């Protein structure tokens, strides 16, 4: 009877390992697809520099009351 318990544990471990490999392959496919899309976007931007990128750069943060002022260009 002990052999059946060991076989069951082995099969559970095998099933879990195969499930993890399946998830790993899915994530790898997603990452590669995202990289292909980014490369295509960069290539189209390089081909047409007048086109605006999908994400605009963020504006610089406004200084807060406690932060020091940058030096003036006149100084």
Give the key terms.
75 residues; mainly alpha; 0% strand; 61% helix
Set down the secondary structure blueprint:
Layout: H1 2-47
Tell me what you see in this structure.
This protein is mostly helical. It has one helix at 2-47. It is built from 1 helix and no strands. The mean pLDDT is 83. It is elongated and about 90 Å long.
- Report helical residue fraction: 55-70%
Taken from the alpha-carbon principal axes, the silhouette is: elongated
Main sheet characteristics: none
Tally the beta strands. 0
Q: What is the H/E string?
A: H
Task: Give the end-to-end Cα distance, rounded to a whole number of Å.
Answer: 89 Å
Category from helices, strands and their pairing: mainly alpha
Assembly state: single chain
Low-confidence runs: none
Structure annotation, total helices: 1
Q: Indicate the proportion of strand residues.
A: under 5%
Average pLDDT reading: 83
**Rg for CA atoms:** 27 Å
Task: Report a brief summary of the structure.
By secondary structure, the protein is mostly helical. It has one helix at residues 2-47.
């Amino acid at each position: 009877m002990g052999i059946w318990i060991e076989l069951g544990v082995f099969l559970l471990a095998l099933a879990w390992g195969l499930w993890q490999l399946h998830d790993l392959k899915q994530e790898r496919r997603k990452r590669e697809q995202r990289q292909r899309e980014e490369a295509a976007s960069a290539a189209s931007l390089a081909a047409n520099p007048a086109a605006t990128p999908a994400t605009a750069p963020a504006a610089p943060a406004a200084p807060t009351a406690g932060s020091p002022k940058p030096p003036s260009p006149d100084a």
